[in-house]
């Protein structure tokens, strides 16, 4: 009998006789035990009594914490932890974003309404009527209310018509845009001084102050308004200017059509008219620009409104409106010769609303309604003396223009 090769350890060895196994009884029993243990580990197990107690206690704590946190706005009640997982703020974040958005829209609306109200852009609100707005782009200034703020730029149109209210001694500016204008020297507000074109800020500031003194002395001094010589005006002028100073002095001594001092100084005949309360309304602005190298040009553009009463026995009232544009020059003393503490006048322009233009005696002669010649002549040029939106040139503000309102 021939020998058989040794049996292979592989139970699927084709050389092994069919039905014969190489696994011993001990190995088979161990395999069954291990397989059964793995199945037991994978099967669900009923929690122990301790585990059930811990779970119940944690559940009650979560309910109590949730009850305490009702009404709060800072996220869910449960803390971050192994039982709850990372907190989810998505819903609360969305709610907060909605609240912030609504709050932001409301705040923006409030700011917009407030801004437009201040700017006078909303009709029906205080300050919303263009006729009662001060110094806005339209330049409308009529209507009752507080004194207008200082003018900072040229208006874009004439102020609205003030209405049909007639002036009285108590309200001499009634029916006029000047009723809301500031009075006297306080209305001449100086701009912030800055160095310009080689002229120091200090010299520009001094020039602005001198120009204001000149305006006050030539248009607001009570004695001068009543016909006295403008002594302070002459004292302010730079004597080096020569011709201008000489011509003004000559015009004051002997006024004529060619040399009329009213183009520089406002004076009335105190025997004809009186100024009511010496309350002069003023509106305008002062600006600074570059001139020749080492020179700065100051321009004062102001309108003066005088409330007047006739001394003809009838006590009639009227107003005269005088607009003046005065240019002065401030220089660097290293480049230009000038007199310290004096002002150099480059140019003057003037317009008179309600003046007998044929007079050349150096005085302003307002007309009253009952006086002969009060009606304008046919073909006379008409202009609004309150219209500060237009430049003072030959097309506007000639001495013989007829005022459309006073």
Count of DSSP-assigned helices: 7
Amino-to-carboxy terminus distance? 153 Å
**Structural class by secondary-structure content:** alpha+beta
Q: Which of globular, elongated, flat, extended, rod-shaped describes the shape? A: elongated
TL;DR of this structure?
The protein has helices spanning 25-42, 49-68, 90-119, 201-219, 222-225, 231-236, 243-253, and strands at residues 182-183, 273-275, 281-290, 295-310, 317-331, 344-353, 382-383, 402-403. With 406 residues, it is an alpha+beta fold.
Written description of the protein model:
The N terminus is likely disordered. This protein is α+β, with helices and mostly antiparallel strands and 406 residues long. The chain contains seven helices and eight strands.
Keywords:
8 strands, two-stranded parallel sheet, 15% strand, alpha+beta, 406 residues, six-stranded antiparallel beta sheet, single chain, disordered N terminus
């Amino acid at each position: 009998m021939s020998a058989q090769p040794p049996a292979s350890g592989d139970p699927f060895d084709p050389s092994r006789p069919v039905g014969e196994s190489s696994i011993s009884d001990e190995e088979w029993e161990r395999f069954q035990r291990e397989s059964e243990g793995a199945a037991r580990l994978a099967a669900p197990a009923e929690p122990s009594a301790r585990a059930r107690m811990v779970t119940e206690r944690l559940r009650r704590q979560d309910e109590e914490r949730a009850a305490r946190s009702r009404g709060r706005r800072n996220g869910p009640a449960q803390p971050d932890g192994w039982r709850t997982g990372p907190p989810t703020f998505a819903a609360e974040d969305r709610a907060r974003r909605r609240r912030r958005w609504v709050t932001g829209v409301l705040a923006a609306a409030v700011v917009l309404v407030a801004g437009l109200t201040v700017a006078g852009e909303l009709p029906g609100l205080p300050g919303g009527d263009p006729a009662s707005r001060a110094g806005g782009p339209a330049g409308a200034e009529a209507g009752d209310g507080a004194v207008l703020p200082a003018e900072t730029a040229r208006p874009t149109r004439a102020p609205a018509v003030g209405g049909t209210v007639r002036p009285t001694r108590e309200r001499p500016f009634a029916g006029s845009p000047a009723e809301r204008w500031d009075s006297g020297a306080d209305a001449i507000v100086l701009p912030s001084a800055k160095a310009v074109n080689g002229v120091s800020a200090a010299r520009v500031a001094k020039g602005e102050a001198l120009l204001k003194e000149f305006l006050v002395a030539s248009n607001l001094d009570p004695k001068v308004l009543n016909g006295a010589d403008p002594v302070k005006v002459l004292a302010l002028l730079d004597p080096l200017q020569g011709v201008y100073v000489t011509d003004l002095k000559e015009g004051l001594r002997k006024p004529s059509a060619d040399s009329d001092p009213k183009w520089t100084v406002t004076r009335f005949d105190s025997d004809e008219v009186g100024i009511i309360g010496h309350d002069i309304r003023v509106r305008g602005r002062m600006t600074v620009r570059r001139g020749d190298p080492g020179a700065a040009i100051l321009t004062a553009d102001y309108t003066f409104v005088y409330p007047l009463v006739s001394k003809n026995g009838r006590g009639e009232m009227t107003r005269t409106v005088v607009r003046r544009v005065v240019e002065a020059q401030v220089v660097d003393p290293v480049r230009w010769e000038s007199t310290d503490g004096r002002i150099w006048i480059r140019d003057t322009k003037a317009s008179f609303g309600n003046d007998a233009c044929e007079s050349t005696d150096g005085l302003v002669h307002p007309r009253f309604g009952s006086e002969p010649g009060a009606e304008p002549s046919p073909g006379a040029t008409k202009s609004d003396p309150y219209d500060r939106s237009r430049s003072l040139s030959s097309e506007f503000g000639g001495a013989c223009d007829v005022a459309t309102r006073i």
